Amino acid sequence: MKEKIKQLELFLKSSNFDRGIRLGVAIAVPFALLYFLGYFEYAPAVVVGAVLNTPGDIPGSTKRKVNAILISIGFTMVITAILLFSKPFLPLLILVLTIISFVVSLISVYGFRASLVSFSGLLAMVIAFAVQKTTTHDILVHVGLMGIGGLWYLVVSFVFQKIAPKKDQNQLLSDTLLFIGEYLKLRAKLLTKKTKRDELLKQTFVLQNKINEKHETLRESLLTARKRSGRSRYEEKQLLIFVSSIKIFELIEAKYLDYKMIDVIFGERKEFLKASKKLNKIMGNHLIHLSELLIQNDKIPNKEILLKALSKANESITNYIETVKLPEAREGALVLKNLYDYQEQLLQEIRIIRRVMANVHDASKVSLKRQDSSQFLTLQEYRLNILTQNFSLDSTMFRHSLRLTIAIVFGYLLGFLFDIQNTYWILLTIIVIMRPSYGLTKERSKDRIIGTLIGAFIAVGIVLITQNVIVYAVLAFVSLILAFSLIQQNYKSAAALITISIIFVYSLMNPDAFEVIQYRVIDTIIGASIAVVANYLVLPSWEANNLKKILLNALKMNKKYLLATQELYQNPAIHKLSYNLARKDAFLAISNLNASFQRLTQDPKSKQKEFQLIYEIVTLNQTMISAIASIGNFIINHQTTPASDDFNLLISKISNNLQVSCDIIEHTEINKKIAEETVEDAKDKLLEKYQQLSNLRDENIRKGNTELDTETLHGLQEAYLIANHISWLKSLSESLKKATDRYRFTIVDEQ
């Protein structure tokens, strides 16, 4: 019960509920004001204008948000006017419906914010069918009032932002810490859950994508919000939490261990890993708790449990050495020590977040130059040629736009021919449900139908209890606010609440509520069925065939990241910024690859071509980026020796393997090979360096010098990590080269 109360409190304090309240105010005020002024007949048009332009009100840069809403207002007004003027002429209406559906949906090629503006345009087109205006004067008045409604919503949004200016950023930071906490706990399970690793890895792909999406939005929101006069104390706090969350995520990524090697080293001695595993779980739970406190503003939890768990992890290294004995214990001890160092860094970042949230005045400040920070923003281009480049059946969005257009026109003609009472409900269901991928469309269709049935069932129960129009009005208003608040978190619940709201709105105009419920359910089922069938049969876009471009980008970004790490090893002070930028690009690229794989899993089994091969490629890319990050993280946090010629030669070999993988997919000329004998010799020399240090340490132990100084320890750690990770990366790159060759032969060449 206590947990449910806490979740309710988090929801009521969330920015999602805040946006629901904004919509409620944007609806209630015009209705009330125009009612008291005696112009109530104008209220519906104003409210429709407000509702239509809410999709563009998402977290991010204020400037981009305002621009999106203003463009959305213009779009919805023009589209509504065109539809209303075309309605009396069926052939013209069909033509207009086709053109608008296709052109407006294709705007989504300009990114997520553009897709929301596109959705507003499609929504305006559908709602125009419900508007009964025939004269030019009435149409222009209606469209003008819609524009006023859109501007009114923009004012409401602006006022709410001024009242709680950092609510969106706090929610994003909270969500980010929550996902990172869950991710850290998943990584803990990977240490010992040998038989469940494949399933756990698939779960990490989902979380990685969610974390990267949140980080991208936070970059836009926090980095573009900086003013020339500097940042306020609160902005400084948010930015510091954001930077620490990035460091924590990258540290987790950097410690993607060679689990097969771990299994070999520890064998039946997995108990020595339990302390590290427990520390990960405790830190993960602590991050989740901190994520809740960003919304609740409660007291920061005690840190003792964290420090105690860290101490236990350190003790496990000593216990392992005492049990196994040196020199046999050295390799396992270095693995545990590297793991401990990484967890200690994680804990440092968590403590920074704790200090910031506790308002400790001497907490570290963020030092970001304007020209440096701007390089971390992913800017969306809005050039016309981006649109023209997508005029091809090879474009996923082009195929989706054609598919959506056919589904909409078919849905309208079906309603027209069979004289369905509210045909636009079918169209509304199609545009809300239909997505470029079959899997997401099918999932949303299922949620929509189930949600509609639940909402209808609840509405029936209420209608049987009372026929009070005031109750209907209140329920319609409240359920709409809650639906808008939940639409991103729980689409099924949102669909149920939308159904309740619509049924009671229509019940205010139609005394026969049961008839309204019946039509709502039938039209939703028809619309959902059309959406699913169209996605399956009309120019289907199966993810296995769409992977090529995303995979190519991941390979190129991995190569760029590898070479940036090589430069970092040469001179960390000079190349740190370029390394960080390459790391960010690589993480985003692998996130897109993971997201593509998730969409593949949602496609019908018969369309999941070479599923295991694609899973292998995704896993190899993920493992490579983590191995590279592990090397980079060590270089940044330790005093290292100069990079050797052998290291550089192996980097060239790995880079060449990645380039060959790209060439294989693109059917371009294969790069020249580096002599394998030379590469093997370089690999042996790196391992030999570690062995020399290890032998020297053994000699000192035999002489009675058992104390291990920091310089020797770091030297051993560096030699061990570089030798093993470079060897690992070489093996991974060769496996990736073979996998991409099979991928081209079985999938790309067939297209």
TrEMBL record:
UniProt domain Integral membrane bound transporter: residue ranges: 412-533
Origin superkingdom: Bacteria
Membrane-topology annotation of the record: Multi-pass membrane protein
GO cellular component terms listed in the entry, alphabetical order: plasma membrane
Primary localisation category: membrane
Transmembrane annotation, as ranges: 21-40, 66-85, 92-110, 116-132, 139-160, 401-418, 448-464, 470-487, 494-511, 517-539
UniProt-listed InterPro entries: Memb_transporter_dom, YccS_N
Pfam families named among the record's database cross-references: FUSC-like, FUSC_2
UniProt-annotated location(s): Cell membrane
UniProtKB keywords: Cell membrane, Coiled coil, Membrane, Transmembrane, Transmembrane helix
Domain Integral membrane protein YccS N-terminal: 70-339
Keyword Membrane: yes
Coiled-coil regions listed: 665-703
Similarity remark: Belongs to the YccS/YhfK family.
Protein name (database record): Uncharacterized protein
Organism: Polaribacter glomeratus
